[in-house]
Amino acid sequence: MNWEPVIGLEIHIHLKTKTKMFCRCPVAYFEGPNTQTCPVCLAHPGALPVPNRKAVEWTILLGLALGCQVPERAIFHRKNYFYPDNPKGYQISQYDEPLCVDGRLAVPGADGDTVVGIERAHLEEDAAKTIHVGGAEGRIHGADRSLIDFNRAGTPLVEIVTAPDIRSADEARRFLQLLRQTVVELGISDAEMEKGSLRFDVNVSVRPEGEEFRTRTELKNMNSFAFAARGIEREIERQIGIYESGGTVDQETLHFDPSRVDAPPLRSKEEAQDYRYFPEPDLVPLEPDRELVERLRGELPESPATRIRRLQGEIGFSLAEGLVTSGRDELYSRIPGERAAVANVVMNELAATGVDPASVNADELAKVIERRTEIPRAAFTDALAASGSPDFSAERYLAEAAIVDASELDPVIDRILSENSSQVEAFRGGKEGLLGFFVGQVMKETGGKANPKVVSDRLREKLKT
Amino acid sequence: MIDTLRVTAEEATGLLERSEVSATELHSAYREAIAERDPELHAYLCTVEEPAGEGVPIALKDVISTKGVETTAASKILSGYKPVFDSTVAARCKVAGLPLLGKTNLDEFAMGSSTENSAFGPTRNPWDPSRVPGGSSGGSTAAVAAGLAPWALGSDTGGSIKQPAALCGVVGLRPTYGTVSRYGIVAFASSLDQVGPIAKTVRDCALLHRIIAGRDPLDSTTVELPDPIEVPEAEDLKGLRIGVPVELNEAEGIEPGVSEAVNRTIELARSLGAEVGECHLPRSVEFGLPCYYLIAPSEASSNLARYDGVRYGLRVKADDIRSMYESTRREGFGDEPKRRIMLGTYALSAGYYEAFYGQAQKVRTVIRDEHAAAFEQFDVLVSPTSPTVAFELGARTADPLAMYAADVLTIPSNMAGLPGLSIPCGLSDDLPVGFQLIGRQFSENLLFRAGHALERALGFDYVPERLR
Predict the structure, then answer these.
(1) With an 8 Å Cβ cutoff, are B83 and A49 in contact?
(2) How many angstroms away from the CA of B95 is the closest CA of chain A?
């Protein structure tokens, strides 16, 4: 049977607004615990939320970048549940009237685009952070006590929900990387998984191709795109295995251990929790005016997907995707020279140095890349590492280009040979191991700039005669 | 020297302006009155010794957050809680120079109609201490009636200003929803809660309303007032079209003495030049109360979720978080909040939401439309504020539905978001009867004008007979 995976994603992105979603506390995650708080985000009696205008605009901006409709009216709902990190006993979120609906993101691939439907993009507030002390591995079970840091409570969070349109782990990875780059380029979030400013859950099911959807499982806590792709692949195989041996898949949540990629996930039954959603009576409906929506639409930069498609023709999909989703394609375009070579250097060696692509002097770097086979490895690496500094110049590194010209090397070689006649005798008498000695002498003489391979070839030739 | 039973806030302002008394003397006069009469009445939950401000002092219902001054909502769960911030209305009173006299008693979380649901004991009616003052703002209305405060703020969700004002023989305004900030008001039902003034006269009410009303950037549901608040002068009702909704005036359970006093007042209005005609609000009156008891508890069930023992207020220690929540809330909340949390949780639950909360919201639109239709013909609608005069303590505590019925006449216009003024219009069985005037949205100035003209013509003596 031909099994088809069906994958949907739910992504949370922290907006990098100056202040929280419903109060004026600064958004600052790494300050001392409970220093970025006020009566509103601590849910003191009588405190009321006031929406952050910037967060609303940025959500609309993101929705537009994802091809969404922006309805004339959106409302906030209360999602009710008890948990110590949820100070009001409800989270202000959106339910059936979100800010952005019905979008689509075309994700480029080697064999053309995959179109992923965006069901919605809505705005909500994040919870506080709970730290469990004294138990195993910071888990709540067995902990002596729990501490709560409310600095994160009430920070703005956009939730994006895709349609179940994704058909492979690789498509999921490509979608996530493209989405991340889109968000970063809009300037609305750092979208860094390590910092928790981008988080996502994956819904996975499989079905015989073309048939009805089957039971899905939810994969949580994945901390990198590669990890997610691996987790999805394993889950697809697991579900196929179950069906092929006549079993059924249970609807459950798989909690991955972010620190141990290959550890089997913890499983939990999905409790049908009743959140008792109802319209947030402390807030009035949002009615984004059409002028604002059109102004925001006008501010949209060229999408990363468009750039991937454009570069794909000259350097192939993989390099094009890599450059664009790592934010390096602009630098690539600035560096003249042979395209594949430039792309490879920018994507690999240069990326490894950590130099900010925006600060690189492209013309100077181009000279180094062009002659990269001629200069010592160390000099090339040094040049890349220095390419971001304002006084970077190729000249210094090119001066270290290896001497390959025989006419330059021959006089040196001849002098060495005549100065070491006894060793020449010995070599000719069969002690071929002395070649290394001669090469060493030449290298020393040229200050290390000679190309050792050329030197040894010349030496062999001259010693034969 | 100062007869706190008799002096109005406006007169007290005059005394201060003419330096006939100092703010400290005025404050002390009320403190002496409190010392004398409050042990019997229990209008106050706490009092403030030192006046801060040079104006006429004020009492605030204990749902109104006051920085550094205990604010309990008459609940054990908030016992000892001192807010770190002032509510917007408390801040506005401070800016206006009104020193705080103290915080007044109420039904726990403003849930009730008799002030008997206070976790700290009931308040008694100054006209007859064996009777309730009404509620939930019974502490504020009793304080004003007994000369323990020249004026006070209350809050009104289903009738919690108008009904106790009626039962205590004072004037109370429930403002148009969205005209007074709820920032810092311990929430009961967010889409209905409004803070409003309570005073001896309509003019005092207008003066106090002027201080507290207006848009607040900290409360997204507030709006700018279309017109500034005016202190009423006119003594006639010429050109005013008064509608008498039949269903509100002939509702089951209205006492004959109440009807008589209200009908006399309607006749008086006619003699002052008003045109009077009948109108109908059948669905508002039939469905108002049930609809209210779905929407208000639903919102309350969510608003009261924050009292979880984690950050402030009562915490009952337990072995795990779930038991801590359960023990804290079991011990911290009284019966009425528990009853409403359960009602609301049920009404919002999956599978019931559409039939209960969803349906109630639709009915609310019907109620709004029905009132709007009545206001096409009339400027003001009138009725009794409460079907009965003050009842005996304990008379309804065993029967929540009988207690809920106390608000049957105030709830419909509250559901429509409309302003309502209650003025005393006479006595029945030696107890005050309240006359309710309902207006269009933002028509407070008109209500004050009509209320003032009637008040002058009625000549009601607001000092309880036993205290004269």
Answers:
(1) no
(2) 20
CB B166 within 8 A of CB B221: no
In the numeric block, the tokens 């409309």 are attached to B418
Output the pLDDT for position A443. 84
Q: Name which of A48, A75, A275 to mutate to probe chain B: the one with the most chain B Cβ atoms within 10 A of its Cβ.
A: A48
Which residues of chain B are modeled with pLDDT < 70? none
Range of the domain at B439: 9-282+365-467
> Is A302 part of a structural domain of the chain?
no
Smallest Cβ–Cβ distance between A46 and the set B87, B220, B221 belongs to B87
Under an 8 A CB cutoff, do B220 and A284 touch? yes
The four Cα atoms B142, B147, B150, B154 give a dihedral, to 10 degrees, of: -10
| A80–B305 CB contact, under 8 Å | yes
Per-residue pLDDT averaged across A108-112, rounded? 94
Interface test with B, best of A278, A284, A286 (most B CBs within 10 A): A278
Pick among A44, A132, A148 to test the B interface (most B CBs inside 10 A): A44
Q: Are residues A394 and A410 in the same domain?
A: no
Q: Which of A377, A398, A419 finishes a domain?
A: A398
Same domain for A412 and A270:
no
A366-424 confidence digits (pLDDT tens): 999 988 877 878 888 899 999 999 999 988 888 777 666 777 788 888 899 999 989 99
In a 3-state reduction of DSSP, which class is residue B49? Answer: coil
Whichever domain contains A438, its CATH number is 1.10.10.410
3-state SS, residue B168: helix
Contact A66/A303 with Cβ under 8 angstroms? no
CA distances from A418 to A384, A424, B85 (A): 41, 8, 95
Do A142 and A114 sit in the same domain of this protein? yes
Give the active site residues of B: 61, 136, 160
Residue-number span of the structural domain to which A182 is assigned? 3-296
Cβ <8 Å between A44 and B84: yes
CB pairs under 8 A between A and B: 102
Residue A174 lies in a domain: yes
Helix (H) or strand (E) run with residue B163 in it:
helix B162-168
Give the model's pLDDT for residue A458.
Answer: 86
Contact status, residue A435 vs residue A416, Cβ threshold 8 Å: no
Q: Which of A45, A84, A283 sits opposite B186 (nearest CB)?
A: A45
A32-73 per-position pLDDT tens digit: 999 999 999 999 999 999 999 999 999 999 999 999 999 999
Q: For chain B, what is the domain count?
A: 1
Its pTM surpasses 0.80: yes
Angle made by CA atoms A102, A198, A220, in degrees to the nearest 5 = 85
Residue A148: CB atoms within 10 A of its CB come to 18
The answer to the question of residue B340 being in a domain is no
Within 8 A of A146 by CB-CB distance, chain B residues are 321
3-state secondary structure of B270: helix
Residues of B in contact with A82 (CB under 8 A): 305, 308, 325
Number of domains in chain A: 3
Q: Is there a domain that residue A312 lies in?
A: no
The reply to whether A282 and A389 lie within a common domain is no
Please give the Cα distance from B34 to A217 (Å, whole number): 66
Q: Do A71 and A148 share a structural domain?
A: yes
CB contact under 8 Å between B220 and A80, yes or no, is no
What CATH number corresponds to the domain at position B396? Answer: 3.90.1300.10
